[in-house]
Recover the amino acids of this structure.
């Protein structure tokens, strides 16, 4: 049995699906019963509780052979939740622990990255047999602009269109997570999960232009304009602040990685942006 925390989000569901495809038994840990039906539909058991509820964590870890720990995205409680989950895993003597971190957690300008560095430090000091996965930005994040890309031929980003970002398909991240959770030989490893060389946002737009058969251009919007849209979409103050800092860091430095590690882990080339764009276009 493998426990996936933060299982209600898109990453948790993708990892659970990849694990089940490999024949693993999975239990998803979520804070609300609202996620129960969706997880059961893909074949997962469900445990409900908060990440700071020691009793709920211990119940969820009963009979578990490995844990994949995902903190809710942009959570201000990343470090405290990890303290509780790691302590519970040690108390339950769980044999394997895999942590969903992020590419370049050393970047202090992005607080949600830097918090994951603190969690990585905890694992170094723990008694757990751990592996750390560091995915870059998901290709799926582009889909927030999908309707506008299709209708208006515009890919809008809150940083310069020249900004270089390495991307990865979430399905490749899930496949890598399932592999390190079910195969031996990954103890004490830290793996960067990167699917592409750095791409400018203009190059991202070109990839979608090619598969859609019409011009798509990248367009930079101001942070102020993005903040207004985010506020109207119901994104809370803490998440807006964290995302604003991320976009400013992207504007200054990009987020650049190398696909070699993921290629080695998967035993094949990672999904390219062109392949992802074709898959999305075909399914739309």
């Amino acid at each position: 049995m493998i426990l996936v925390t933060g299982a209600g989000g898109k990453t948790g569901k993708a990892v659970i699906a990849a694990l089940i495809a490999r024949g693993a038994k999975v239990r998803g840990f979520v804070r609300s019963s609202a996620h129960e039906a969706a997880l059961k539909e893909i074949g997962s058991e469900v445990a409900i509780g908060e990440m700071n509820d020691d009793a709920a964590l211990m119940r969820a870890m009963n009979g578990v052979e490995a844990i994949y720990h995902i903190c809710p995205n942009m959570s201000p409680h990343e470090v405290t939740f990890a303290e509780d989950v790691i302590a519970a895993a040690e108390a339950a003597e769980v044999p394997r622990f895999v942590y969903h971190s992020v590419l370049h957690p050393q970047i202090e300008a992005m607080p949600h990255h830097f918090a994951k560095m603190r969690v990585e430090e905890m694992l170094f000091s723990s008694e757990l047999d751990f592996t750390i996965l560091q995915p870059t930005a998901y290709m799926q994040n582009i889909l927030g602009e999908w309707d506008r890309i299709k209708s208006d031929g515009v890919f809008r980003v809150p940083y310069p269109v020249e900004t270089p970002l390495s991307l990865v398909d979430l399905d490749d991240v899930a496949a890598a997570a399932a592999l390190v959770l079910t195969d031996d030989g990954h103890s004490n490893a830290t793996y960067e999960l990167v699917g592409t060389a750095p791409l400018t946002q203009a190059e991202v737009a070109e990839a979608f232009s090619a598969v859609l058969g019409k011009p798509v251009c990248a367009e930079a919007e101001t942070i102020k304009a993005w903040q207004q849209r985010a506020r109207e979409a119901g994104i809370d103050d803490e998440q807006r602040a964290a995302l604003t800092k991320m976009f400013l860091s992207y504007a200054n430095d990009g987020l650049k990685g190398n696909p070699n590690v993921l290629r080695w882990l998967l035993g094949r080339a990672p999904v390219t942006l062109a392949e992802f764009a074709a898959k999305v276009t075909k399914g739309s």
